[in-house]
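Researcher: I'm preparing a figure for a lab meeting and need a structural model of a single chain. I don't have an experimental structure, so a prediction will have to do for now. The sequence is pasted below. Please return the structure as tokens so I can convert it later.
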Amino acid sequence: MHARNTNELCKCTACPYTFTPALTTQAAPDYGPSRTCDQPISILSTPDDFAIDVYYKLKSVLPLPDAPIKFSAEPGMNSLPITGNSFDAAHAPFLLAHNHCLFACWHGKKDRSGKTGIWFSEFTDRWLKPRLIASHELDCWNPVLIHMGNQLVLFYKVGTLPQRWEGCYIKSHDQGATWESHTPLPEGFIGPTRSAPVPLGGDHMLCGSSREKGSKRVVRFEKIMFEQPFENWSISKPENENPYLQAIQPSILRVTDNQLTALCRSNQGCLLRTCSIDNAESWSELLPTELKHPNSGFSAISITQGGYLVAFSHHKTSSTKMYLAWSIDTIAWRVIYLLAEDNKQLLYPNLAQNDNGDLFVAYSVNQQSIVFHKVRSDRLTSLINSDHNL
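Model: Understood. Here is the structure written out token by token.
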């Protein structure tokens, strides 16, 4: 079992760290007066002491003006909507920061009668009008966008239910301007279910994946090698001695050259954790973490400031708040920022970071709109290095 008391050495051979269970939470900042949607759009930013730039709330998208769009934060939601033609559904956003660009994709549809497809947009000095880039006879779900070599690769799932999902991917060789026809993954592979793969060198990558069969949930890790025959691809799973600890949608964090940690969504009111000390050849049993979270999506990444970030709800059942927590070792976590709070459901966050160290966060609101935030690098460093219990 993992250590449970402060300064107790964890006995798990995959994570020999000191465990500190206490979590601290920062109160919501006061952003000042809000703006209404019919006020003139101008380039604004929030107070310097929090340095949050909210790009815009993607409930809909008319063709956007040529000027960059940055809104001052509104109390509570920290965002403002743009009026126009709404999406009937928009959920599971995924961000990719690359070459001074920020790419966003999500699954959604414009009207109730339509099929759910994968939408794509790009931010350079403004957000471009979203485009539908993947659509099938069946619905498409949970996009994961990566940069590999000189191309973008978009993984997504196709099927009416998670139990029947099949994995597909499409590629773009011109930074998302055009996309090739879809390619199905080989039978038995569905690709990354929610988080970005971890590179293993060349075109080899490790995908955090999962399967759902009835009420049973199984975390798995798929080694995908695009230039290798399918028979060389492989799947590994955690050793799970507790049938009640079931999980899906793992986010993989690299700790050392051979050591990995995966945080997983569960129905236990917290995130679960498994470790590998042999570069994903085998995994430890799933165990609970101190990160409280309902049965919903979350996001975890490594950051250039050092350590790791998680975007999560910090509550066993509620998704009306969105927090950031930081860890130096993936074991002990400290809540450093309350990003948003509302009486609506704030769901499926996704984190990305650019070369300057700026952090981007996206999440869906009631599965109908997408909200984007930016946390400047210097502010993120300040939050991490703070000696106070925020």
